[in-house]
Amino acid sequence: MGKYLDPRADLTFKKVFGEHKHLVISLLNALLPLKDDERVESIEYWPAEKVPDRPLAEKDSIVDVCCKDNKNREFIVEMQMTWTDSFKKRILLNASKAYVAQSKKGDDYELLQPVYALNFVNENFMNDVDEYYHYYHLVHDKYTDKVIDGLHLIFVELKKFKPQTYAEKKMQVLWLRFLTEINDDTREVPAELLENAEVSEALEIVERAAFDDAEMRAYDKFWDNVSVQKTLDNARKREINAVKREAEKAKAEAEEAKAKLKQKDIDTARRMKVDGMAADLIAKYTDLTAEEIEGL
């Protein structure tokens, strides 16, 4: 048994990023597409009642950290352990709710500030691309420098991440290594993680010895629920795939039957033409058009 707990779990993730402002600030600055003059300087956590509602079935597979900074920009950070096709839409809905909720402060739309949703996904969902980092925002389809600054959705596929030594992305790499390399089996931590003060502090927070019995039961229950959710998701995927296969089979059979009927009409029309029958009469007894009959 290792010295640390997995930081992707609900309990550990919230202890690191939901209780230590300077650590979530570091995470946001490392992972969000912010310019140097847009970096997050200070944050306040949202009160619990403002955290977006989540379906009961997803509460054990998703963790939330919600906050706003001194510029009133709002940030939602989530960890998705099991991928569902509806996840993107749910993130868009929650980010939109957070954006719209700002209008209660007044009618001056110029006061509305951007909402950033940073989502870590523990499964691959974009299998046709190699990149692990995906950024969605409102941009002109032709003039990509024309942007409506409102909603910013970022998805990080953790399983695609491979450690790199990009100097300008040092903290992004370190935080993603923390999330992907530290788990229950970790016995020796890479020196690069220990040498960084913020990541080293996060490592201390997820040390197994820092959790009492009740917290360990909650931690174990989280992973049990993730396993159950994966089983249910896989069963649902198999069912959906079976329905798709049946639909594709039925479509193929219908197309084959249609093609046979078409060929039968063509054979009939050819014999009728040989017998000297007029095109309009041939069309009457087949489903062929005048142009098709003429081309035979």
Describe this structure in words.
With 296 residues, the chain is α/β, with parallel strands linked by helices. Helix content is 45%, strand content 15%. The chain has nine helices and six strands, in the order ααβββαβββαααααα. It has a six-stranded mixed sheet, with helices on both faces. A hairpin with a 4-residue loop joins strand 2 (62-69) and strand 3. Helix 2 packs across helix 4. The radius of gyration is 28 Å and the shape is elongated. Mean pLDDT is 87; it is low at 55-61.
User: So how many helices?
Assistant: 9
Order of helices and strands: HHEEEHEEEHHHHHH
The structural class is alpha/beta
How much β-strand is present in the residues?
Answer: 5-15%
Shape: elongated
Using only C-alpha atoms, the radius of gyration works out to 28 Å
Average pLDDT figure: 87
Helix content: 40-55%
Characterize the main sheet: 6 strands, mixed
* Cα-to-Cα separation, first versus last residue: 78 Å
- Biggest sheet strand order reads 1-2-3-4-6-5
Number of strands: 6
| Poorly predicted ranges | 55-61
